[in-house]
Every structure is written in structure tokens, then in C-alpha cells.
Amino acid sequence: MVKQKSLTNDNTTKVEFNNSVQTIDKSICDDVNDTVIANGMHLRHTMLTLNSFRFTTQLLRSLLMGFILLTSLNTKQLAQSSNLFNRNTRPSIECLKNDRFYRDPNRPVHKIWTNIECSKYFLCLDGDVFEFKCSEGLLFDVVRQICDFKQNVDNCDITADDAVNFENFDLYTQILFSPNNRNPNGCPIKGTFFVSHQYTNYQFVQKLWNDGHEISVHSVTHRGPEIWWSKNATIEDWFDEMVGQANILNRFANIRMEDIRGMRVPFLRIGWNRQFLMMKEFGFVYDASMVAPFSNPPLWPYTLDFKMPHTCTGQNCPSRSYPGIWEIVINQLEVGDFTCGMIDSCPSQLNGDDVYRMLSHNFKRHYLSNRAPFGLYFHATWFNNNNYLEAFLRFMDDLQKLSDVYFVTQQQVIQWMRRPKITPHLNTFDPWGCKPRQWESPEVACSIPNTCKLRSRVLQQDRYLYTCNECPTQYPWIRNEFGLD
Fold this sequence. Notes:
Blueprint: E1 2-6, E2 12-17, E3 20-25, H1 26-39, H2 43-52, H3 57-60, H4 63-70, H5 75-78, E4 85-87, H6 115-118, E5 120-125, E6 128-133, E7 138-141, E8 146-149, H7 169-176, E9 192-195, H8 202-210, E10 214-217, H9 226-232, H10 235-252, E11 262-263, H11 272-282, E12 286-287, E13 302-304, E14 322-327, E15 333-335, E16 338-340, H12 352-367, H13 386-399, H14 410-418, E17 450-456, E18 461-467
Parallel strand pairs: 9-10, 11-12, 12-14
Antiparallel strand pairs: 1-2, 2-3, 4-6, 5-6, 7-8, 13-14, 15-16, 17-18
Helix pairs in contact: 1-2, 2-4, 10-11, 12-13
């Protein structure tokens, strides 16, 4: 709270902010008294008005400390905002004169998305750079110009779970999908990659596509909060996120549009009819986001021609029919007294043997009952636990000893359900085969990509884009997926 009190000599004024008292020249306060004190909590307006008055360095160190800081905090956060201001004198912080708070554009690459760096922000006034820091547990959102909880800030991401990049490419190509891992028909096993945009290396994505894996869409921003996808996203938002990412995959990984058939919603938050109207309009074949209640026997994928064969629990499911659109439903895994949709959302206290038993038990629930496809869904970071990786590879080895078990993509599941074949005929089932594909020259992934250092106007940060094509002018983003100037 800000309080003003004249002292006995009538030449100075005491300004109190969050129990910190500053004494400044009264003539300065007289200039801004009507603006600052009368406006009270109209803080953003106050900041702009204060900036137009003639201030001395003394006033910047007192009133500005309080009022500019408050523009980034809501009333609830204000109670915890003391001791957040610091005058920055480091010459490494660049002065950006844009009348907005910004992050240090030259922060170290190895710290660029850490919580500490994401909580800092700066403002340049008259050549002086002022440093601010959000309260504990909050990050700064450069777009909305406020401090907020981590899950609500989508422009300072600290995870790359849904991207294909240097951190996980070798895991995919040399371990999980090693050429030695093959289906009963002799073809290498395949998987589906739901790719989000940030941190993705599009040369790697193109290589995975060349190797026969399916590339599907997982949004451009992967933004938070989670509920935004199910409650707030408009049809236009769905087009921006999902069709936008399809355009990015087509432009920078050279993936044919007709090969981009499916999508998965961030956080598995179904987006009611708006999501499926977008899918119908664009031509997506399937969604793979819906977690069904646990059931024995498990559920098969289904189309949305008719009512869903399960209840909609905790989701904003579609209320209309969408003929021709498939839902590759997520059957939950059974882990003792718990159930979980994705492998990495299962209880974290499991050891390697527990994981192996969990995978084997749930596979048998499918294999020994109605043989509904057994979906294995995870983020690459789950395999950072070496015990989990060894358990998963052991489980894969078990399955490859069975002559009627195939590792296939989501699209290959749909292709079989449309034209089912009995096991003896699967060796000649073309959609599951591995005949060499004819590529156009630009569709073959390059050996050395272009490394594009690009400015993002939205994220206010330089980003790197790896592509076999020419570098765009700007970092691609929603409503500018081609990176045009």
C-alpha cells in the first residue's frame, strides 16, 4: 500500500510503500500528487502518466519502485510483492526502449528457460534499466505483462517433452525404433509422433517421416492453462493451433499434407464441438486425446458417427455427430489400485520390475480378451529413468516373440479396421508393409540443416529453427506459421 505524509518542515514528503519509507522533495510530489495518489489502483494508467512527468533520479528510486512494479501484479499478488525491486547496474542488460517490460535478450542459453530467468523482467526508462522479479512460484508473461503461475505462462517454457530435437532423437532412432526391432512381417516397427512446434528440429521430423513413422499434430504453442483448451479456445483458435502446426510441418519438414491425418490436444483436454468442427473442416481423420473410464474389456477405436460407447468423465466431449472422424480412445492402464492414461502419469514410485509387470499385465488385458489395440503413450523424458527404459525394452522383446503382435501407427490401426485381415494375411497387408516409397527431391531429409536464428515478436526472444529449407524471416508462430516478415 502507498501512503503519503508531509513532514514538519513542509519541504519534504514521506512516501511509504510496503513498509518501506522514502523521503523525497515535496515539489516533485506536488507535480504528480493528483495523478498518483488520486488514481489509487489504476496502476497501468499511472505508469504511463508518471512516465510523462519530469522526474529526478530520486523519484525513480521511490515512487517508480512502487507503481511500475504494481503494473505486473494483481491485487492478490500485491500482498506478497515486497522486496521485489532491484536497480540493475549490470552493463550486460540491454536497454529496450519499447515502453514494455521485457526479459534479458542476452541471458545465457543454458539458463534461458529456467524458473529463475523466467521470473525476471526489466524496464528501460531514460537509459536506465530497472530489474524486477516475480514473487516466489510465479513467472513473468511478456505478452500479458503480468506475473502468473507457471502453468498459465506459455512464452517461457521449461519443457520440451512434445518436441523432436537433440534431446530425444537418438532415443527414437537408435533405441526404441532401432532397425533391429521388427514386426512379424519383417518390417521395422513404427510409431506416431504428436509434434508441437517449440524446440522442434524439423530436419529430425523429416527423417522420422522418411523412415516411415507417422507425424501428427500437437499444436503450435502447447499453451496453458489446461482448461483453456476445453473451455476458452474458439474455433479460430483451434485452426490457429492445429492447422497452423500442420502448415509448419508441411513448410519446414516437407511432410505432405495428405500424410498429416491426426492430432492430439495438449494436456488431453478435449475441446467440445469447436475442436471437432475444425477437424471436419480441415480434414483431420482422427483425434487421440480422449481418456475413457477404466474398463474390462478395453475399448476399440470408434467413429463419431454415433454416440460415444463410454461416459465422458471430466471432459468437454462433443455433443454432436461427426461422421467419418475417428476417436482413437486412450484406454487407461491398471497399476494396482490406480489407473493412468499415459505411462508417465502412472505412480512415480514404481521401480523397473514394477513397470515391466504393469506393461505385461495390461497387454494381457487386451491380448487375452477382445484384442483392442494396446496404446503405449508417453513423453520422451520418461525414459530418462534408465530402469524404466530397460523395463520397456524387455517388454518389447517379449512382444516381438509373438507372431500375431505388431507395433503400428495410429493411422495403420484405422487402416486395418477399415479393411480387416486375419493374421495369416497380415504379411501381405500393404498398409503395414515396408515397400520403398517414392520421394520427391525436397522430401528427402538433408544431412546438414539450415540453422536459423530468428526473432520472435510474440516471445520477445531469439529462437533457433532447424530445417532443410530456407530460413524464414521471423520465428513461425500462430497466425504467422510461415514466418513472414
